[in-house]
Design brief:
The complex is a heterodimer of chains A (about 110) and B (about 200). With about 110 residues, chain A is mainly α. Chain A has 1 helix and no strands.
Chain lengths: ~110, ~200
């Protein structure tokens, strides 16, 4: 009876130690991210346009959050951009040094 | 014999249990250590204040509300944009809503956005925080807060970009400001994102 308990406890401890190893590895992976860049001014925008509608809806619940990394992961080298920069293509702000819009690069 | 083993076994059992507790504590600490900067800032879905204008995506699939200090800007035909500019024509606040166009999905949105920034016009991009299961008016989304440096002009922006899935469509809302003024701009930008309505 006592041997069984001891073996069970030892086995549990071994499993816990293995789990700790996995957790630490995951945390280390998340922490491996570089810091934020510095700061400068933004660019100028394209021309204006107007468009108005009104809608109302009930508020929903607050957010489910996931942990942020500290100023973080730098993605790899940029791929080719199908939209020319320097006011090329769609003349978006983001093709002129302005903020990036939400298009899917299509 | 049994009594002796039991007496010997009890300390071993206690030691193993203590070790397990310590190990679990270490694991929990390691997991919690993934977010030393704190949780993703709260984003509360709520109707826009009275007096905020609205821009509706083609087809009425989403409505972007923006503070009166911003004005609508031209952009992609399928998208809507509002921004506030400085006297020198620099962006101070930027809001954009665009129908989902690419292969972006709620899962992996943060990575998609960072990759997209770099493939589109950013020379560098860094994730600050990300969240999934974010509640929006009429839908659920995945969000990322990141900062980036543009290739043209080396301008630094910080943004919250969310892919939001409504009942009938998905779209992306972006709220950005110069990195230098992000802290001041964030409350208003988050209010606009929280007021985003999807269908």
């Amino acid at each position: 009876m006592s041997f069984t308990l001891t073996r069970s406890a030892a086995g549990f401890a071994l499993l816990a130690a293995l789990a700790a190893g996995c957790g630490s590895a995951a945390a280390a992976h998340h922490a491996a991210v570089p810091p934020k860049p510095a700061v400068t001014a933004p660019a100028a925008p394209p021309a204006a346009v107007t468009h108005h509608h009104h809608h109302h809806s009930r508020p929903a619940h607050p957010v489910v959050t996931t942990p942020p990394a500290p100023p973080a992961s730098t993605a790899p080298a940029p791929a080719a951009n199908p939209i020319p920069q320097g006011n090329g293509g769609d003349q978006d702000a983001d093709n002129n040094g302005g903020p990036n819009d939400g298009d899917g690069n299509i | 014999m049994t009594a002796r083993l039991t007496r010997r076994g009890r300390p071993a059992l206690a030691a193993a249990a203590a070790m397990a507790i310590i190990t679990i504590t270490v694991v929990a600490s390691a997991v919690a250590g993934r977010s030393p900067g704190g949780a993703f800032p709260p984003l509360r879905p709520a109707a826009a204040p009275a007096g905020w204008p609205h821009l509706t995506l083609p087809g009425g699939t989403a409505v972007l509300s923006y503070p009166p200090s911003l004005r609508p800007l031209a952009g992609d035909k399928a998208a809507v944009t509002a921004a506030q500019l400085s006297a020198g024509g620099r962006y101070q606040f930027y809001l954009n809503a665009t129908p989902r166009q690419g292969t972006e999905t709620l899962h992996g949105w943060a990575a998609f956005r960072l990759h997209h920034l770099l493939s589109d016009h950013a020379a560098a991009a860094h994730e600050v925080a990300a969240a999934q299961g974010v509640q929006f008016r009429g839908g659920t989304g995945s969000c990322v807060i990141d900062n980036y440096r543009t290739r043209i002009g080396a301008h630094h922006f910080q943004e919250i970009a969310c892919l939001v899935q409504g009942h009938t469509s998905a779209s992306v809302i972006v709220a950005a400001a110069p990195t230098a003024t992000w802290a001041q701009a964030r409350p208003l930008l988050f209010q606009a994102v929280g007021a985003y309505l999807v269908r």
